[in-house]
Amino acid sequence: METLIVLFSLLFPALKVSVPYDMISHYYYGCGGYSPEEEVGMSADALDRMIEDASRMIAGSKHVVALTGAGISVESGIPPFRGPGGLWTKYGEPDNKGYQRFLQDPKAWWEARLRGEGVRPEMHSFDGAAPNPGHYALAELEAAGVLKYLITQNVDNLHYAAGNKNVAEIHGNRYKLRCISCIARFPQGSLPLDDLPPRCPECGGIVKTDGVAFGEPIPTDVLEICRREAMSSDCTVVIGTSAVVYPAAELPVMSKRRGAYLIEVNPYETDLSFMCDLSLQGASGEVLPTLVSRVKELVAGKR
Ligand SMILES: [Zn+2]
Asked: pTM higher than 0.85, yes or no?
């Protein structure tokens, strides 16, 4: 089934791939005893109880994987792309030909980029952004040996800035460049731009920015990590994303099908909530520090 999703997504990359809920319905076993009524406008007590339950699930798991999206960076002042206040909500979603335009004329694409074309004023918020307590909590969770891998849809580099090391960036990193032939990555500014397009020092291939353009396939090394981690995870924590866009959409489903716990941290109910074992409704910058501190206590108690 995963293969079918992948094929479908490759054929129609512009489409949001619906999470095939029927695949996981028989694995869904409720939200740890919390009725849906309790989750609406979650009280502080209910949230505290869920944080305790989530901490126990995480501390008792062997291979915890986190999947993050725009929600965690909104708390660092970075606007999301989709949803209320999103860049594409305001300006309209770009067409699906960005990568095609790059391939047709990489030199012109680079020249337009260097002229600043297509840069919205809000995008400057990236440059002053710093990790928030949610990012730092995830770095602590990795340092404690609990979080094995972090997969993010964000391009803002804030997980690395917070100290995470095992990071897979599905949509690339806006501070890096990437060779489209051998997938080698280079820090922005490390390659000369006087002769466009820049060439890969390792294989001579054409270099573009690492951020994945519309219509561009997700780099294969990242996809491999995502699949490997989804298949290894016994507890997946989804933070600040409804994970409806491929390939992020398939990761929680793959984990869940294998019987992994699925925990969500999001201020609002999402399309993923119903399949989660626990859906913690709150700001990740507030929920994650409490959660991680409790996980560390539990893990320390086991040693
Ligand atoms: Zn190369």
From this structure: no
